[in-house]
Write a structure and sequence with these properties.
heterodimer; A: alpha/beta; Fumarate Reductase Iron-sulfur Protein, Chain B, domain 2; Rossmann fold; 3 domains; four-stranded parallel β-sheet; about 50% helix; globular; B: alpha+beta; Uridine Diphospho-n-acetylenolpyruvylglucosamine Reductase, domain 3; Alpha-Beta Plaits; five-stranded antiparallel β-sheet; about 35% helix
Chain lengths: ~350, ~475
Amino acid sequence: METKNLKDWKNELNICIRCAYCFEGCPVFKITDWETDSARAKIILAYGMLIGDIEPSQYIADKMFQCTYCRDCSERCSANVPVVDVLAAARADLVEAGFASETHKGMVKNVKETGNIFGDKEIKAPVQQGEIPVYIGCQYLARPNQTKMYLKILEKLGVKPLVKDEICCGYPLYALGFRKEFAEHKKKFLEIFPEKEIVALCPTCAAYIHEEYGKDVKHITQFILEHLPEKNLGLKATYHDPCDLSRVMNITEEPREILKKLGIELVEMPRNRKTSHCCGGGGGILMSDVNLSDDIAIVRIKQAIETGAPLLITPCPTCEQVLKKAAATVKEKGEGDITVKNLSDVVWKALRS
Amino acid sequence: MKIDLEKLKGIVGQDNIKNDIADLYVYGSDSSVHNALASVVVRPTTIEQVQEIMRYANAELIPVIARGSGSGMSGQAVPIDGGIVLDLKKMNRIIEIRPADMLCKVEAGLVDDDLNRALKPYGLFYPPLPASSRVATIGGEIANNASGIRSVKYGATRDSVLGMKVVLANGDLVNLGSNTRVEASGYQLDRLMVGSEGTLGIIVEATLLLKPIPKFRCIGRASFNKLEDAGEAISEIIASGASPSMLELMDNIAITAVNTTLKMGLPDVEAIVMFEADGKVKEAVDAEIKFMKEICEKHNGSDIETSYDLKERTKLFAGRKKLFAALSRYKEGLSCTSLADDMAVPYSKMAECAIKIHEIAKRNNVVMTAYGHCGSGCMHTKILMDPTKKEQWEGAKRAVEEVYEYVRSVGGTTSAEHGIGLSKAPAWKKEKADSLKILKAIKKALDPNNILNPHKMQDAPDDWVTATKLRYPVE
């Protein structure tokens, strides 16, 4: 297999000392308990393919795609090995060698044909003129009520959002290894968003637009916090940090400040902020291995239930989706009860009153 | 080697076996420089399953390599002859915690930090605390006689193990040791198992001695412009009768690596000494800290900071905790290899040992650091080199030989806590030259068919560089 993408990471692969410290928080490894599913194994296999020790196979490809991209491994790595970047390169080489899954290929086709990951032509941004460019992202566009709520929140806070006929940010193409398709998509995205400053609703889109396009991205939570008046909702809740928001964007305090301003008593889970446990919804496994995603989400929702808070709040639509499903499963089994809400729900509740 | 997978599936179930080349490649590696392919990875969940696997392997003469998290640095868990890798991580139950007896019983696959989290509500802790405690399993720690920063006060794993259940090569299960702090009768077979690196039996359960969590803990950090001064301070602290719960050294290379990678802002000096005292009575801890601080000052230690505050303590110690991995970022193009990584020398030789390490590194065109739990006589180094260059390996090989020649010359020993495995075996065999026959006889008595982690320690190849394929592509 040609390893033209992995080659760029040879030095980083040599830097990894294989100490296994990344086992500690890896949500996938914690479910399966097989070392082959750990972050270290992904580095070992990537290195093995790069130096020609092992031939690529569908099995290896499956392992490489069995990751939520939560970056807990990099956070714990004392050598700062960018595991997810290495993994993305390995995925790209595997895709070019013909190991892409049909599900992922389908998603790429969807983006190409409809501009969104769902392949639904009916999913359209509520285009409107305004002052501040707001990027909504596929996941929120598929939830028009929530999108509307965020836009109303902005208007209520005195901001006129500029919403364009947007397309996917391109992160799924990049993360799933479709580099050629991403290069074409990137041009289109930049034509739509030439602006340097953007406000993004989805944490993953925010992180990616910031990292890949080098734009000054504000996540909606930062923006809301700047304009939000104090309220008193009198609720008790725990907060789930989306991985891209905490570990990539370093945004951990702003959402908490918002909750505080709304008069919500916050009860923290032991794993919070940069050590937050992944919800299980990232990296493409929601499409390729939904059972694994569900299992990871159940671990997280149980951590939330243990706080004793009746409510879990998160600003990420994917986290919200998988954690809601996990909460329903856990409730059905009689193992606890917690309500999952998007941050927009509580902010809007406070503002409309 | 023919392995009956159906037989193994019958023992542990289909879901607990892996034999794809990717699995074998991953399980053929650890944190050492070595790499070899296992034949199959098997994950037992009960003692009975381990016994059945051993009966089968013994009858068919198949090597069995016990594995915890594979975080060892000397190739202990690398399957040099192929065979069955026995992944014990699923056997991770805490069987019982007995505060009145100050002991607990656990399965071998339990992770050290998970045990300590469970002990905390009882006000107890399990003391060995290797730096890898977040992933290291109790079984792996016992097999390597692991220790860590607190070994200066609480001893190594051997001092904290009261007994264990071991599955022998023929599948028999034996109970070794006792539930008591002392045991005077006969050969101490439980102690023999500690540090045997999976060559004498499969440790499946352990009885561990616990200690009360000290009410007060204070850490101090002193900077030294001369490495010799730091060494003399360490030597005097120990010789003076002080009772540190931690006494650590970091040289300038270690300091630079931590500052580069973790932006720690440690003082750019020749050496840093970290000292700690703990106890039930604050005045006693105060007195210990004051005493150690004065000794550091006497030996030109400066910028001395001390703190009882948990956040401050964590900050003061953070650089040391993450040092191993951070060394990989010392300089562009150099990788951190676990070679000559571990040794012990008499206290009075700590500074000389560090200086020797630097001299040897320079002579052999590699970079070596010096750091460690000097309070227990333990010195660590790593060889930082370009692992793709043949001449760097030649230099590394010479450096390893020279380091251990020096260690032996001052009455030191090849491994303080990281074990022997493959990469330290040649030096260890020289150190134990007059007892090799006894060691081999013990191995033969307990494992007549040589199936338990074969060709390690006293039976390992004489050249560690060619013992297995190196995990790096050497030009």
